[in-house]
Amino acid sequence: MLKAVNLTKAYGSHTALDHLNLEIQAGEIYCLLGSNGAGKSTTINLFLGFIPATSGQAFIDGVEVSVNNQATRDMVAYIPEIVNLYPTLSGMENLEFFSGLSGFQYTKQELGRFMEVAGLQASAFHKRVSSYSKGMRQKVGIAIALVKKAKVLFLDEPTSGLDPHASNEFSEIITQLSLQGVSTLMATHDLLIAKNLGHRIGIMHEGKLKQELISDEVSHADLTRIYIDLVKEKEVRV
Ligand SMILES: Nc1ncnc2c1ncn2[C@@H]1O[C@H](COP(=O)(O)OP(=O)(O)OP(=O)(O)O)[C@@H](O)[C@H]1O
Fold it and tell me: Residue of the nearest CA to atom 15 in ligand 1?
């Protein structure tokens, strides 16, 4: 569903992403770990077509992002740390607006059903987004992904700053979507979420994908050790 072939992004002499090769299957949840500046957001931005690659290719469901960015954007949804919504509109009005932008028309009842699946309480549907918590905004973000029938979710640090309950609820929804065949690429600093939610984990460092792990095959303690050892390489060299 997602494929990167020698995907590279350079800013002048600085290589933010260095020959990334990655494949993510339908329904797979892949978590990218890495310290600040490792290249996680760059990877997501390249798949979204927000920035052009210096070399290499990114594909979504076989379509090359740089060749047909409209087609690839139609297949995906992006949920950043803070979901960007219109604060003076209600959650429902935002959902209605974004589903219209994606070319889908739904009844209010259908939109309400998407909100429920995304985990938003019905009592919040018609409240202004300016009064929403971060977790509630993310639920609207998920509802937007549902209305556009996204095949792929890109999540950039979605659980940072969420309380444990909200973070757990978020993980459950992503797991449900994965069971329906939705692929997820998630950048996170949270090793526990990566271990518990991800099927596979990629550890990045200084623009390179250094190691890939299968979550079920690694304990949280081992993951922590492997991660720290990789990140420490930098300190030893400096
Ligand atoms: N527009 C830009 N111009 C120059 N350098 C950039 C630009 N965007 C990102 N970079 C650099 O690319 C590298 C990778 O950044 P990126 O945002 O992908 O890291 P990250 O792993 O997502 O980090 P974080 O965990 O802090 O979000 C960093 O060194 C960053 O400074």
Answer: 37
> Which ipTM score applies to this complex?
0.96
Indicate whether 134 belongs to any domain.
no
Q: Is 38 in the pocket of ligand 1 (CB under 6 A)?
A: yes
Q: Give the rounded distance of the alpha carbon of 50 from its chain centre.
A: 14
The CA 201 to ligand 1 mean position distance, Å, reads: 20
The alpha-helical segments, DSSP class H, found in 91-190 are 91-101, 108-117, 134-147, 164-179
Domain coverage including residue 226: 2-81+145-236
Q: Is the distance from the beta carbon of residue 112 to the nearest atom of ligand 1 less than 6 Å?
A: no
Which CATH number characterizes residue 183's domain?
3.40.50.300
Query: pLDDT below 50 — which residues of the chain?
Result: 238
- Residue 238 is predicted with a pLDDT of 46
Closest CA to ligand 1's atom 6:
11
- Atom in ligand 1 nearest the alpha carbon of residue 43: 18
* pTM, rounded to two decimals: 0.92
Question: How many structural domains comprise the chain?
Answer: 1
Contact of 26 with 1, CB cutoff 8 Å: yes
